[in-house]
Write a structure and sequence with these properties.
Elements: H1 2-20, H2 30-36, E1 38-44, E2 52-53, E3 59-60, H3 62-73, E4 77-83, H4 88-93, E5 99-105, H5 108-111, E6 114-116, E7 121-130, E8 145-149, H6 153-161, E9 167-171, H7 174-182, E10 188-192, H8 193-202, E11 207-223, H9 227-243, H10 245-254, H11 260-263
Parallel strand pairs: 1-4, 1-5, 8-9, 8-10
Antiparallel strand pairs: 2-3, 5-11, 6-11, 7-10, 7-11
């Protein structure tokens, strides 16, 4: 449980600092980023293995490692800005982050306000919870309490299928929603397969998958006014797919191959 607690404490402290600190606007174009010599990347640090804190408090994982490789590819230094599921797009749009390597699912609603890269990861999302609860489809959510992380595609998916008497409890980050399930605050969770693996390390044999919510492709996110940056990210990702290095990084952190629907996706 240490990883989840450390991540939750760190994210909370960052949120407080951000609330009282006025940060200068980040670069909008690839040239401005190169001239500045640094790219500020928003990443989750409470969502292993996509993003977590090591024993030295440094951000590591699939997203931070990929962000470092992208920064190297354009010849700049990397600054990781910890974000949460609830605030990550806000941090991008406000200029605090230049780009998000933050496990964001590609949705039509989000495409109205930001641009996504070619997919670089994919998740399966489930209704998951106490093994004594016998539900197999959305009808079983009637009268139930279910937790989700605010602002995620799980939140959207659960909200879309919840019955009128389903009590949807929202938490500001994945560490909090996982802890709510483990501590018994909620009996069910709308959650991605990656997070399920972390929960089961902490609380083995207590929970089961109930039913699949959706398959979700993830993309790197830039503002609408950053077309050159988006093109650079797409070139970077497509190159890493072609040479196999994206798949190797995925294997390193996820202990599984890059899903076929991600491997073959290209803009």
């Amino acid at each position: 449980m240490t990883l989840w607690k450390n991540a939750l404490t760190f994210v909370a402290s960052v949120a407080v600092a951000a609330a009282v600190t006025v940060m200068p606007a980040s670069a909008l174009t690839l040239k401005e980023i190169k001239d500045k010599g640094t790219i500020t990347v928003g990443s989750l640090v409470d969502y292993p293995p996509f993003g977590l804190l090591d024993s030295n408090g440094q951000a590591v994982g699939y997203d931070p490692d990929l962000a470092k490789e992208f920064a190297d590819s354009i010849g700049v230094k990397l600054t990781i800005l910890p974000v949460t599921s609830a605030n990550r797009i806000q941090y991008l749009l406000s200029g605090q982050a230049d780009v998000l390597f933050a496990t964001l699912g590609i949705t039509e609603e989000r495409l109205k306000v930001v641009n996504f890269s070619v997919p670089y990861a994919g998740l399966e999302q489930f209704v998951y919870g106490d093994k004594d609860i016998a539900i197999t489809d959305k009808a079983g959510l009637a009268g139930q309490t279910i937790g989700v992380t605010r602002g995620t595609t799980q939140d959207t998916a659960v909200t879309a299928i919840a019955a009128a008497d389903t009590n949807v409890q929202r938490y500001d980050d994945d560490a909090s929603s996982a802890q709510a399930l483990i501590s018994g605050q909620v009996p069910l969770l709308g959650v991605a397969d990656i997070a399920i693996g972390q929960i089961e390390k902490t609380a083995p044999d207590r929970f089961t998958k109930k039913f699949l919510l959706r398959q979700q492709a993830q993309g790197i996110v830039v503002r609408k006014d950053s077309p050159e940056l988006l093109a650079a990210v797409n070139d970077f990702l497509n190159g890493k797919k072609k040479d196999g290095s994206l798949g190797k990084l995925h294997e390193q952190w996820m202990k599984a191959p890059l899903p076929d629907f991600i491997e073959n996706a290209e803009k």
